[in-house]
Amino acid sequence: MRFTPSILTSLVKGIDRRAFKASVERHGGDAYVKSFGSWEHLVSLIYAQVSGADSLRAVVTGFNAQSPHHYHLGCGKLARSTLADANARRPAAVFAELFGWLAAGLGRKLRAEAAQALRLIDSTPVPLSGLFECAASNGRIKGLKLHVLHDPGAGCPMACEITPANVNDIGFGRGLSLEEGVTYVFDKAYCHFGWWTAIDQAKAFFVTRPMSMMSPICE
């Protein structure tokens, strides 16, 4: 019987397995692991995302129902406790590095296809006051802050960073690699004349909201 690749098989086909393995070794992703390596973990996380599963049990049930495709994915049967342990213990740097490779490749394709692209920059709080009272506070919440550079055309983030809640948004913006011809859209939290000048010098553009009163960081 002829094998028909699944959607999941097609999605992971573009990942360089050798480069991923080297990344796993650099970050110790499979240290002390006897089964369920980083590759199997990655495939299960991708499945969780594309299937819209909202719990570990849903991920395991749906994934195991597709057992004929496991061999071609380089995976085996999934256990809920094993997935939970891997989520808690495996270093996130393994997946962050892969994200960087994929995002960089997508960026090259977009620059070739369009003379001008759009990027959205924003942050969102992650409250942790009910879990960690020692979490940093920005005066409104205690916890973390997720900073994101989003490409609305591709429908995916191009860069992200997690910081304490009291870290100013502009720090993330100033750390980005600016692309020629790209228009960056952000709110008043990213008011910094020096950074705006850097955007102009990179032959890029920006759109932001006007401020009635400039904050000290704009000076």
Give an account of the 3D structure:
The protein has helices spanning 7-12, 17-27, 38-51, 56-64, 70-73, 80-89, 93-113, 170-174, 193-201; strands at 118-127, 143-151, 156-164, 183-185, 205-207. By secondary structure, the protein is of the alpha/beta class. It folds into 2 domains: 7-94; 114-218, no CATH class. Strands 3-2-1-4-5 form a 5-stranded mixed β-sheet. Strand 4, helix 9 and strand 5 (205-207) form a beta-alpha-beta unit. Helix 2 packs antiparallel against helix 7 (93-113) and helix 3 crosses helix 4. The longest helix is centred in the middle third of the chain and has 21 residues, at 93-113. The protein is elongated. The N and C termini lie far apart (69 Å). Residues 213-219 have low confidence and may be disordered.
Q: pLDDT average, as an integer? A: 82
Strand order of the largest sheet: 3-2-1-4-5
Overall number of domains: 2
Q: Report on the biggest sheet.
A: 5 strands, mixed
Unreliably modeled segments: 213-219
Number of DSSP strand runs: 5
Strand content: 15-25%
Helix/strand order:
HHHHHHHEEEHEHE
Question: By helix and strand content, what is the structural category?
Answer: alpha/beta
Radius of gyration: 21 Å
Q: How many helices does DSSP assign?
A: 9
- The shape, in one word, is elongated
Helical fraction equals 40-55%
Straight-line N-to-C gap: 69 Å
